[in-house]
Amino acid sequence: MTTTPHHLGYHARRVRRLNVAAQSRDVRIVHPLDGIDQQVEPTALLRAGSALWRSWRRHPAFATPELLLGLDAGGILPTIAVALASGVPYRLAWKLDLDLPSKLRFTEPHAQRSDVFAYGDLTGKKVLLIDDETTTGNTLANLVSELRGAAVEVVGAVCLIEDTTGDARSLLEDSLEVPLCTLTRI
């Protein structure tokens, strides 16, 4: 299934993953920024970042973040794109356990390497979470719990794609009171 919002021409589709471990998702969402189907022109990155930032600014729960926090792998490019569009600085959470102070550990339950680490003292910061996609919302929910435990205010979560086969929106918005803003729902 492909969904294309009119304002961006942004599309995404589900592709079956081969040879995945039992705990991993057997579906991957393929979208224009991941460079899988085709090469990515730099202007596409800028357009996506501008569209994400514009969508977040128009969201009814909009709050200005002091920091963007992107998730390892798929969230790196959207985070950089939003940082360029907004002028808000960013950090990235990595699947690397490094000997650095001030780190928060959270989990990405469906991944082969499930431990993810956000580095730096984020205490008291207003943070906007960014990823390329969300399905169940469990990874973002785990991160929200860790951040709130460290006195970080999560103002929202922004994703390129919401895979509606999961229940991410309900988990994030209803259970955790974290506004979710996405460009595409499939």
UniProtKB/TrEMBL annotation:
Q: What are the record keywords, sorted?
A: Glycosyltransferase, Transferase
Broadest EC class?
transferase
Q: Name one GO molecular function term.
A: adenine phosphoribosyltransferase activity
Q: What is its EC number?
A: 2.4.2.7
* Residue ranges of domain Phosphoribosyltransferase in the record: 61-165
Instruction: Name the InterPro entries for this protein.
Output: PRTase-like, PRTase_dom
Task: Indicate yes or no for the key word Transmembrane.
Answer: no
Q: Which Pfam families match?
A: Pribosyltran
The protein, known as: Adenine phosphoribosyltransferase
